[in-house]
Every structure is written in C-alpha cells, then in structure tokens.
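Worked example

This section walks through a single chain of length 326. The input is the sequence exactly as stored; nothing has been trimmed or padded.
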Amino acid sequence: MKNLTKHVQNINDRYSLWSRGATLILGVSGGRDSMCLLDVMTRIAQKEHLTLAVAHVNYGLRGQDAHADQVLVEDTAKKYGIPCEVRVFDVASAGSAENAWRMRRRDHFRSVAEKYSATQILLGHTMDDQAETLLLHLLRGAGLDGLRGMRIKSSFESLHIGRPFLDVERSNITAHCKKYNLLYHDDCTNDDDRFTRNSVRHRLIPYLKRNYNPNLTQTLARSADIIADDLDAIPPITPFWTVSGNPPQEITFLRDDFVALSLGERNRVLRLLFCLLTDTTSDLSFGFIQEAAHALSRNKNKAQHITSKRLIIQAKGAKVKIMLQA
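Given that input, the structure is written out below as tokens.
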C-alpha cells in the first residue's frame, strides 16, 4: 500500500465514517496502530477541516509502562495541536476482567464525545485484529453472531464507531510508522504466548500461513465480512422484552412470546439479551444458552432458576426475568 492516508480517505468515501468539518474522537492507546491512526487523521484533518480530540485510558495495570504510554499520547497530541482527554484508574479500581476494561473505555469515550459534541469515534483496529478475533471465536465455538467480527462502521448507543484500518494489514501500519518516524510503544504483554490471542498471533496464524494459506489474514477477514453481510440481510426480531435500568440491570418478557420463536431465534434472542446486560458474550457458553432455551420452552407451571457466572434467569408462570448477578 503506497499511501495509507489516501486509502483511509477512500474508505471514508465508501463508508461515510465522517463528513467534512466534523468533530472526531480518536481512541489512542500509545501502541503502533492507534499512533498511526492519530498521524493519518491529523493529515486528513488539515484537508477536510476536521476537529480532532484524543481519548486515552490508563488502566493502571502496567505501572511505569502505562504511565509512559500516557505521556507519549499526551506529548504527541500536543505536538499535533490536538486536545487529549485522559482517564486514569488505579490498580484496585481497574480490576482484571476484560469486559470491565472495555466498559470503562467506552464510558470515557462517551464522556469525551459529549464534551466535544462529537458523535463519531475512530479506532485503530486492523485486518490482523479481525482475523485473530474470528479465529479465536471459531476455536472457542461460536455462532454467526460471534463470527461476524468487527465492522468498519458500527454504532454503540448514540455513538458511531469507525475503524478505517480494518481492511489494512498490520504490515502497512508498520511501514507508515517507519516512513514518518512515528513514535509508539509495544505492549510487552503482547509477546506473552500464555495469553491465547498472543499464541494465535505468534504461533497458529504463522503456521497456517506457511502450511495452508499464505493469504490467511485476508481470507479470515473476508469471511467475517461475508458473515456480517449475510446477518444484516436477516430481518431483525421485533423486541418483545422490557429493559430496566441505565445501564441495563434487568430484562423481562412473557414466556409465550419466547416460545413462539423458532429454535434458532430463541438462541439468538438469548445471546442478544445477555449481551444487553453484560455488554459481551465472550464468557457465555453454548451449554448455558441451550440449557436456558430448553428450560424456558417447557412446563411453565414450574418455577425455574438458572444461573451463570454473571446472570440469573428466573421463570415462573407466564413471566421471565433475566438479571445481573449481585
């Protein structure tokens, strides 16, 4: 790829990630991909009169390395003349659950977007991230929703999420950083193959490329796009449930409305409802979905109580209630 900046402009022409004169929030961690995104969008902003702001989260999990990332992001944003909004957590409050980190990041992005009256957030996910995610989901077992991967353009509540590098291989990001002498920090934990994603990245994908498909990254990313497009063509299920709380804490519905669905629709609805409560299905097992769907489809005169690590399902008579574990 000769010109990454021009490529991102072409992606915007195709997907309308932003309009001329818009205000955009850039999620920047200090790593290679996001620092490259910051540089590319700064170049584009000059041509399209964009207003940019950087959002950075320091989870407090990597000590001085995390502090160094924060300083790098702040200094680089200052060099570009872009405001940088940082949220810092201490180790105790940050916790260790991946979903908790994701929620904190989204909350920060949302607050920054509100501060600058922006509706669009750009993230630096690459084609390699897409391929790794699809392969991980496949190895763990997933349905179509789990295999659809990320999208170049998506939405979360009132925010529009753009991933202009999603069809760009990481090697092109590296080449851009080298060409323009961009500073970035590599997270040392990314080299630890005890983490499944790192093992997939450093061992499994290179093995599959050498022995089966040298274009594996593109193939997996294309498969994710095809699955997502096919899912978009499926008519959505009309909501028959009520959500309580902000963020959602409880969902209720009538059992008869659930039983009226096909088996595949029941499973999809349960995954959707669980995702509404927990913001992820990454720790939701196929067995639990099957157990819950089966239980809610049989004798409604018997009270039922089903639990997972994070959820409680209570069914008695005609009514069903799904709640977060206390």
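What to look for: The first strand starts at residue 23 and ends at 27.
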